[in-house]
Amino acid sequence: MTEKERIELSEILFPNIKRTKEEYEKIYPERNLKAGAMVTRYGPSPTGSVHLGNLFSAFCDMVYARQSGGSFFLRIEDTDQKRAVAGGVENITSVLKGFDIIPTEGYSFKGEYGPYKQSERTEIYQTYVKDLIVKGFAYPCFMTEEEIASIREEQEINKTKIGIYGMYATDRDLSLEEVKEHLANKEEYVIRLKSPGDPNKQIEVVDCIKGKMKFPENDMDIVLLKKDGTPTYHFAHVIDDHLMHTTHVIRGDEWVSSLPVHIQLFEILGFNIPKYAHIAPITIKDSETGAIRKLSKRKDPWAGAKFYEEAGIPIKALHLYLATIANTNFEEWYLNNQDKTIDDFTFSFDKQAIGGTSFDEAKLTNLCKTYFSRKSGEEVYEETLAYTEKFDPDYNKLLKENKEDMIKFLNIEKDVPRPRKDIAKYSDVKEEFSYAIDEMFKQENYAKYEGEKTYDVELIKDYIEVIDLSTTNEEWFNKTKEFAVENGYAATPKEYKKSPDNYKGHVGDICEALRVMITGRTKSPDLFSIMKILGKTRINERIELYRKYSNQ
RNA sequence: GCCAUGUUGGUGAAGUGGUUUAACACGCUGCCCUCUCAAGGCAGUAUACACGGGUUCGAACCCCGUACAUGGUACCA
Questions:
Q1: Is the pTM value of this prediction over 0.80?
Q2: Does this complex have an ipTM over 0.85?
Q3: Residues of chain A with CATH 1.10.1160.10
């Protein structure tokens, strides 16, 4: 076809496209950002379900844009109506907000480079395709599904590359008259790329994360516009990321094999090629088969975004985990910088894992504990309050009624370099501090006590008589030792071990008895701190409770 | 089939030619501290660089091959 014929063809195919690509270039001008600022984007399809992997990807988009003073936008990639789920888009934005991964612009946010929904950009894509037809880089293809299937079969038998390219792309050299005939027959068609690539040549791509990669040049006449006139992912990606001036395309590495196509498209269109950063998927070792596979929502509860909120895993702790898999040096940094938060850390692509990252539940739990241990009692209280508001209203009510006490309990042993790590999620608070609220304690009683010993109520009553709750921990413990000795107990476990026959037990036994009576359990944070908070009246009430429980 | 990428101890991983007799973290074990637990300190644990060639004075690091894994190979993203 001559250029003149191609122009005619473009008008026949796209009579309604009046704008030129130059006009669009003006509508989407260069961003006015400082040097080094990264523009990233998260482009979910509107199925609505959000996977940990999606969250991870969006998290990366956010931190890189934020730390460089750039922009991170949300673009809905809904070019395939079959994938649309009612309410899906709303769910995506609400999950993102819930996880505190907030785009700076994009769909349902502000922004100058919209529309940020691909289904609303059809005209733009068609404008560029029209231009490509004029230039001879695109053509209408009338092949039927059956024809393509039989080519595939043939290719499988010949063990060659599968697809529409070279000699298999029979419609790429149709004359204008032939095209008109097809059109006159009302045949359906797609617009394909007329690939100029030579598969015997190699291209080298430098990925920000994976480094150098070599591929054969693309020679596939991939589909640009589907028969309904909407673009394929490949084409939409190239047009949108050019117009929206994305500097860094951060996406899952299922896209690396499409890289030759995307690079080629950018070149044909005369666009600057953005930098690519392909992140490895989050995998897991299957507990049954031992095989490494992608996280699956069906098998792995933590694969779905909803899980974290319901389980009471703090968003910020999840961020910590995402950061440790994003940059391999983050974990050590965080451990060595007690007073710093994620915002103080500088992420870099070359510290990002190349291979698949495995999900490590134990590590997540540990990170959560570390997170909680660095929070003050007040903070833990407020956050737990917010969590229970939604997921445990009964407990929420109790927390509100016992605010002062709760905070005191949550602050026990906080004033040390490395505080206790006994809470991993909000729902643990209820369990770990079951003794903190009188109402709960009276109800549960000693249900949680698993030992078989029965402790001497009278002994402990006498003990409480002599204890002064206004003293220091040290004085208290000395007094406890004194009391132990007076009553035939050894002052230290060591002494007791030396000659167990000389004693009824040791100080620890007295503490244990008291601990069980006032907390209902054999393990707890610092006993004296608990006693101080409870005060003698409540301690005595609980001892009486125990008396009933143990039939004394 | 074809194309691409990956493979370091129980787990997550550092490390891109020479103080690597291979970090660190999690886990686990023991001891210490100690009223219990947590935390902390100390010690230990695992015979860890997929396999086979090559380049080099020297390779976990570079090259080739094999195996395995993952992804792509759609008018899905």
A1: yes
A2: yes
A3: 286-373
